[in-house]
Amino acid sequence: MKNIIFFIISLILWIFVHSHNIYDIFSDDRFDIKKLDGGLTNKVFLVTSSNQKKYILRIGNPNSICLGIDRLKEIDIYRNFTCNFSNEIYYYDQSYDILLTSFFEGEPIEAQDLIEDEKRMRILMDALRTIHGQKIQTDIEKQKLYPIKINLFYINQLQNKLSNIDLNREKEFLDSILQKEMQMFTPCFCHNDLVWSNLLWKGDDLRIIDWEYSDISDCYFDLAGFCIEHNLEKSLCEKVLKLYFLSSNYDLKKFYLMCCLYSLKNYLWAILYENLTKQIDVKNLLKELQLKNKSNFEKYKLLYENS
Q1: Quick check: helix, strand or coil at residue 189?
Q2: Residue of 40, 28, 11 lying closest to 197 (CA atoms)
Q3: CA pair distance 225, 104, nearest whole angstrom
Q4: Model pLDDT for residues 232-243, shown as the tens digit of each residue
């Protein structure tokens, strides 16, 4: 099966070279292909040409739409992004969900090492402020902002697929936010998936990869996601907020709310993907993610309600 996958990828690349405008990227038809450890959804390969130029080839998950991923929007973001933090896109095939981008020779840094590296943390926070300051159309209705939209989408998907699932409590929580707290939201462009493996470092040079969940959101949602994905305790979360806002003038209640919404999103995503995938090892990991994020949701919901 592995050889068949590599043969198909080689064939795809050969077709690319001979029929598309990326011809000049490759000097000949010989490539070395290595599968990389990626996330739970996509298959990612490092492609090295005979002249040692490297590229990233990503094959999207066939369940991308069910997981709330809009590939055309993602590609549009890649092509129109004015910041220097993402990979350059060379080719996208919508029919097969195949993306070819530049390769960055960087590595992720373990959460504890990153949070203790004040210089890199300042670089990251500077990058996030730049990303959040990207020019966008800001007249979007707030109930359509990503933290609300994606959770409602997942609940709808789950209720359609699983007749015995009870998400009334989660739906009531979202309804209460829509009714009472939408004035807290400030629309801006966000990455929405700042897991440690999406932050690549080469010295002090930073690249942020995997923009498939990026959307109009709120800067606090990105900050909440970073803190949750890096398992930061309350004191370290406040350190992140101070570094981002360059002061102690931040809204802790809003941060707790975004932590609720982010944890709920991860919890619902894990339930949904568990019911889409057939891989037993992935299912087991998704069960663990459900427990972790359900616990995080309850913890931050309590902090939010008591703020």
Answers
A1: strand
A2: 40
A3: 23
A4: 999 999 999 999
Q: Could you report the per-residue pLDDT of 178-212, keeping only the tens digit for each?
A: 988 888 899 999 999 999 999 999 999 999 999 99
Length of the chain: 307
Distance between CA atoms of residues 294 and 260, nearest Å: 10
Q: Half-sphere exposure of 138 toward its Cβ, with a 13 Å CA cutoff?
A: 10
pTM: 0.88
Rounded Cα gap, residues 139 and 181, in angstroms? 18
**Nearest Cα to Cα of residue 222 among 188, 171, 271:** 188
Task: Tell me the domains of the chain and their CATH numbers.
Answer: 2-102 (3.30.200.20), 111-305 (3.90.1200.10)
Residue in this structure with the two tokens 């398992």, named with its chain if needed: 231
pLDDT tens, position by position, 109-147: 988 899 999 999 999 999 999 999 987 654 555 657 899
Q: What share of the chain is helix, strand, coil (3-state, %, to 5)?
A: 55, 15, 35
Strands (E), the chain: 31-36, 43-49, 54-59, 89-93, 98-102, 188-190, 199-202, 205-208, 215-217
Tokens for 143, please give them. 């109930």
* Mean pLDDT over each residue of the chain, to the nearest integer: 87
Q: Which SS3 state, helix, strand or coil, does residue 214 take?
A: coil
Backbone angles phi, psi at 99, to 5 degrees: -120, 130
- Alpha-carbon dihedral of residues 85, 45, 33, 76, nearest 10 degrees? -60
List the Cα angle 26/32/33 in 5-degree steps. Answer: 110
What gap in Å lies between CA 206 and CA 109, rounded to an integer?
Answer: 11
Angstrom distance (rounded) from CA 173 to CA 167? 10
How far apart CA 280 and CA 286 sit, in angstroms, is: 10
- Which two three-digit tokens encode residue 288? 């663990």
